[in-house]
């Protein structure tokens, strides 16, 4: 890692500073000496490394290995969905099963890197607003590191997520409203203290953990990228991170300029990215009264919306919304055909895929990856209606 760089204005900061956002108010990205990285790693040299996300340590921001707080996150299965693919006429359909991460979701990736970097920087108190899985992951890694943790959650957050945070020793505060309201209350409550804000894209390092999904898919497909990636999008850190990873992979010589088409899936009851995409806007507007059974998609506004929209458009992808009923039906279909019980957010990717096929955005010849971002076992209240 060489420096931090603003994703909007490109202002640079030294790597050892404790920072949240650029002075312009935008997200900061970690940057690396990629010429040097290219001499250190290539796909064949990774074969002997541990099967976790730290196998990509040269493009991760933690310099001191003693600061790494790992619970075995990353290198989750990329499964060929043969029965589901046969039903849809898609011989090259894959499921990236992120439920295999510690704490049961892809949020473990971002929090493993962010908490490890915070530990390296000497931070000892962490806070985050969360609709569920991010809070649980932060609490787990904070416990591993011996750090204080505070999680602010909407009152309607599933019991499993609330218990997960509390059992790891985090202080849980329930807030009326959405995750946006939680962030506001958190910053008001903790103002003046020495708490570090780990909110989505309000610090530079969670996105670094999420980007490793792209490196893994490349490896797991034998040194190539798929034609399309379908991703459930709330704050969008994973989509943004994977687009960043493609830039890095191209610069170190692993890929050329071809990228997967990126499709962002949201819920009918909370679709600010879909609305901005359809309206040709660079940024989204806050979604009033967000409503969806998929708590991870109940994000009415995101600081990184311009980065999500940029990646979608550059890749010739799209943003679309699906109904709660369709995503829950898709959860059942994935379970019945492929044996995986995924979250409503994971079901949203299959519901979105069906719309993309119907509308002609995708056909039968492409290789397609659906991201199943969390286990369905944390969503029993939502899934109970399916039986």
Number of helices: 14
The whole-angstrom Rg is 19 Å
Structural class: alpha/beta
Task: Give the strand order of the largest sheet, numbering strands 1, 2, ... along the chain.
Answer: 4-5-13-10-11-12
Low-pLDDT residue spans: none
Return the average pLDDT rounded to an integer: 97
Shape: globular
Tally the beta strands.
13
Strand fraction band? 15-25%
The rounded distance between the terminal residues' Cα atoms is 50 Å
Largest sheet: 6 strands, mixed
Percentage of residues in helical conformation: 25-40%
Structure description:
- Helix content is 37%, strand content 15%.
- It is an alpha/beta fold.
- Strands 4-5-13-10-11-12 form a six-stranded mixed beta sheet, with helices on both faces. A four-stranded parallel beta sheet has the order 8-7-6-9, sandwiched between helices. It has a three-stranded antiparallel beta sheet with strand order 2-1-3, with no helix packed on it.
Briefly say what this structure is.
The protein is α/β, with parallel strands linked by helices.
List the helices and strands and how they pair.
Elements: E1 3-6, E2 12-13, E3 28-31, H1 34-40, E4 78-80, H2 82-88, E5 93-97, H3 107-120, E6 125-129, H4 133-145, E7 148-154, H5 159-167, E8 171-175, H6 179-190, E9 196-197, H7 206-210, H8 212-220, E10 228-232, H9 237-251, E11 261-267, H10 272-278, H11 305-314, E12 318-322, H12 324-338, H13 344-358, E13 368-372, H14 380-383
Parallel strand pairs: 5-13, 6-7, 6-9, 7-8, 10-11, 10-13, 11-12
Antiparallel strand pairs: 1-2, 1-3, 4-5
Helix pairs in contact: 3-4, 4-5, 8-9, 12-13
């Amino acid at each position: 890692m060489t420096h931090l760089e603003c994703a909007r204005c490109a202002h640079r900061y030294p790597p050892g500073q404790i920072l949240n956002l650029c002075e312009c108010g935008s997200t900061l990205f970690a940057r690396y000496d990629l010429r040097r990285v290219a001499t250190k790693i290539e796909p064949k040299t990774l074969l002997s490394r541990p099967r976790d996300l730290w196998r990509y340590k040269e493009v991760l921001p933690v310099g001191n290995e003693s600061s790494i707080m790992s619970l075995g996150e990353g290198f989750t299965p990329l499964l060929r969905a043969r029965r589901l693919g046969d039903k849809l006429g898609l011989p090259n359909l894959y499921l990236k099963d992120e439920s295999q991460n510690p704490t049961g979701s892809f949020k473990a990736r971002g929090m493993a890197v962010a908490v490890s970097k915070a530990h390296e920087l000497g931070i000892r108190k962490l806070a985050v607003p969360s609709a569920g899985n991010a809070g649980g992951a932060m609490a787990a890694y904070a416990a591993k590191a011996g750090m204080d943790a505070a999680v602010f959650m909407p009152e309607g957050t599933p019991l499993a997520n609330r218990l997960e945070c509390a059992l790891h020793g985090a202080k849980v505060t329930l807030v009326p409203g959405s995750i946006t309201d939680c962030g506001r209350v958190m910053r008001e409550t903790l103002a003046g203290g020495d708490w570090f804000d780990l909110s989505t894209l309000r610090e530079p390092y969670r996105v670094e953990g999420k980007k490793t999904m792209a490196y893994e898919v490349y490896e797991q497909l034998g040194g190539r990228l798929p034609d399309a990636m379908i991703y459930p999008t709330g704050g969008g850190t994973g989509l943004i991170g994977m687009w960043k990873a493609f830039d890095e992979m191209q610069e170190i010589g692993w890929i050329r300029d071809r990228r997967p088409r990126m499709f962002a899936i949201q819920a009918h009851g909370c679709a600010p990215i879909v609305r901005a995409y359809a309206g040709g806007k660079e940024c989204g507007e806050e979604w009033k009264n967000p409503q969806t059974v998929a708590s991870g998609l109940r994000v009415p506004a995101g600081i990184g919306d311009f980065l999500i929209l940029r990646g979608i458009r550059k890749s010739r992808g799209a943003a679309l919304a699906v109904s709660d009923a369709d995503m829950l039906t898709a959860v059942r279909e994935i379970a019945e055909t492929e044996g995986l019980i995924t979250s409503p957010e994971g079901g949203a990717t299959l519901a979105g895929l069906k719309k993309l096929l119907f509308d002609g955005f995708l056909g039968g010849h492409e290789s397609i990856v659906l991201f199943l971002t969390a286990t369905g076992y944390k969503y029993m209240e939502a899934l109970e209606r399916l039986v």
